[in-house]
Amino acid sequence: MSKVIANIRLFFQGAVLSYIALFAWLRPSTYIATKVVGPLAQILFFTLMGKFGTSGESADFYIIGNAIQITALSGIYGVTFSLAGDRWNGTLPYLFGTPANRMTMFLGRAVIHIIDGMFGVLIGFTWGVTLLGLDLSNTDPWALILVIAVTTFSTSGLGLMLGSLSLITRNVMFINNTAYFLLLVLSGSNIAIDRLPSALQAISNVLPLTRGIASARAIIDGATFRDVRPAMLEEIGIGIIYIMFGYVLFRWIEVLAKRRGTLEAM
Amino acid sequence: MKPGMLKAYIHVIKLAFIFTLKQSMTDAFILFGIFVQPLLIAIMALFILGDQGDELVIFIVVGSGLTGLWDSVLFQSGNSITRERWTGTLEVLVAMPTPIAVIVFGKNLAFVTQALGSMIVAYTFASIIFGYPLSIESPMLFILSIVLTVLSFVCLGLVLATLFVLNPDVQRWQNGLEFPVFILAGFLFPIAILPMWTTPLSYILAPYWAAVALHLSSSGKPNILEMGLPWVMMVLLGVLYLFLAFWLFRKMLFKARVDATLSGQ
Amino acid sequence: MNTIEVRDLRRIYKTTVGVVRRKIKEVVAVDGITFDVNRGELFGLLGPNGAGKTTMIKMLTTLLIPTDGTANILGYDVVHQANAIRSRIGFIFGGERGLYWRLSGIDNLRYFASLYHVDPEVTMKRIPQLLELVGLSDRGDEKVEGYSRGMKQRLHIARTLLHDPEILFLDEPTMGLDPVGGREIRQVIRDLQSEKKTILLTTHYMFEADALCERVAVIDQGRIVALDTPEALKQGVSDLSVIEIEVFGVPEEVMNQIRNLPFVDTVSVEDLDQKQALHVHSAKGSEAIPPLLSALESVRVGKVTVREPTLEDAYVRLVGGKV
Predict the structure, then answer these.
(1) Which residues of chain B are within 8 Å of residue C83 when distances are taken between CB atoms?
(2) How many domains does chain A have?
(3) Which residue from B169, B179, B189 is facing A38, i.e. has the nearest CB?
(4) Which ipTM was obtained for this model?
(5) Is pLDDT of B39 > 60?
(6) Please, what are the domains in chain C?
(7) pTM of this prediction?
(8) Which residue in B26, C15, C155, C265 has a CA-CA distance of 20 to 30 Å to A182?
(9) pLDDT of B161-184, one tens digit each?
(10) Count of domains in chain B?
């Protein structure tokens, strides 16, 4: 029993730690710049390009796609930095020296970023409605929030995997940026999946976000949660698979570190 | 300025240029900004802007190349002084007989020049992978426009670099400045689709005039007169940025010597 | 005209403390310092960490504006004629920062030479000589990130000699080096001294100041507490002997008791592995041992020795037992 309590405590300590790390960097002006204005500019850029273009997609297509994509800002950058921070601070060997449950330690890092990510998406939709005329009158708000929550979870799963990778590479930013932009191309946020070459479609189907964005579009178009439930279950499954991959990688890095005795040197 | 000085400064700019290239060739963050991101933007633009013929493809190649140039100015040139502070070299540079502005000019020239690579990558990719026959309609005008673009971007980079060092609060907006300039400068769609009130903002941005000049000369056969306006504006804005930068440099150096902020992290 | 003239120099740092209620806190780092350095002299600034040595050096190298007072280098004012000074001085701030790690040693030197406006041809001739001087001839082509700390610090010395400056400011040049690395740097400094460079050196190692400097200013809390040749400073304590007593854990009240003994001048404690060494300065020499031991009755005592004072003892006396 006490073991369960210890693990719960560890889980929340991880959450609190990454929360502190997040908000030490975060001042109101920074938050506004990176989480409010930045995403707005990205939504505008693609929506305007769509308006100028002739691909036939509606403005709503880009607004919804890019609003949901905001979740990747916290899911990828936030989560990886929370893990990579241990490497930069040189605290990794100390963490690996504790008897703590690794899974709890690992998952605790993502919690705060899931909440932050959902909040970011809501800000994105607020922009869409107030500035760009996104029509939510046909939308079941709870279904949309549920879709956002599930998508944020699965994207954070990818973040945890990339975060583990960031422990063994110097180029965290390169991996993060590439992942973020590949999601922009492949998740359907800006290009309808069926227009992609079939090889790329296969990749889209194993990425987080893809089903989330499609489901959000359906819900806003009037669908019920029941309609998107299969896709959402798959999205959760994808999130779990990425978390498992990330966790295995995390443990493997620990073993590697112990064998070579060189964590900071990497 | 003594006559020998100019020669010495040019030598400094040359070496700052070479060594900055040497250092950034292995920097994955820079490689992403120059190659990966503009390429992915180009791919998205190809899908979003749709099939409008070869002329549009060269528009996309130039436009996404410009996003790479702006990213380089914003993130590399913008951090060119801040980064010297992190490595502890800033105070060494300040106590040199060479004005730090000359050094930073050389560094930024390297950043912007290497970012031209993004245009070449997008060009090669579009012509090889997508099989579009690509040609620059007015090569001479295009090359001259590139030269002016590079110089005006470097001047803008000097302003950003000093601004960011002087005011960390402004630096926090760095990430938030990326897409707004993509939009206001009309890299991938004309600013005519924007609300009227944003037009003056576009006009004071050298990137906007660079986009006008490069798009005009790459996809059409403009006469010298048409090219005149964007060229003159790039020169004027470049000079304006330069004056602004020198004023900021003086402010920065004085402030640093008073507040002891040269060696900070 | 002296090479370096410092008059009543002061520097105050203002820092804001507190997040909610911001208060401005003033710290006086340099508090009215006056001294001169002669041409060709090796002058030392000696003091504990935080005494104001680095602040002094930064003001003299034009990187920091004094709050008050004046400093002239070769007759130029450090505030208003900074540019005239910059091409005539060289400086290093101890530690390994301040180099471009992704570039080779030679590339670093080429780059800095251009910033000092050294003619490219002269540069190409001088770099091998300087690498030779600092013992990096066979490693110049390698990237600096692979250098040891000592190598980086020696490269710094080469960097600062590129433009053949008249004056060198060396701030803790041996900081953080192992004994061998420190000795190599001191040898380079001696070589520079024989070339008649004016050198201002800061250190908190007494033996370093003793071994290198012609005159030493001891700084404590931003003020000069003594300024003389190392020999003269040692003279100041020559009336005293130093009794070293090994002890295993001394309670504070016993320390106070010893401090209050009439024949004791100063006492300092040096922490060794599992024991401490008491350094007792006294004019009574070995005669002081019996009363000291009786004061230490309750404490386990090891070896006891009596020796002549060193510069370190003079320094300890000047800064009042803080090391």
Answers:
(1) 97
(2) 1
(3) B179
(4) 0.90
(5) yes
(6) 4-234 (3.40.50.300), 237-318 (3.30.70.3100)
(7) 0.80
(8) B26
(9) 999 888 877 777 888 889 999 999
(10) 1
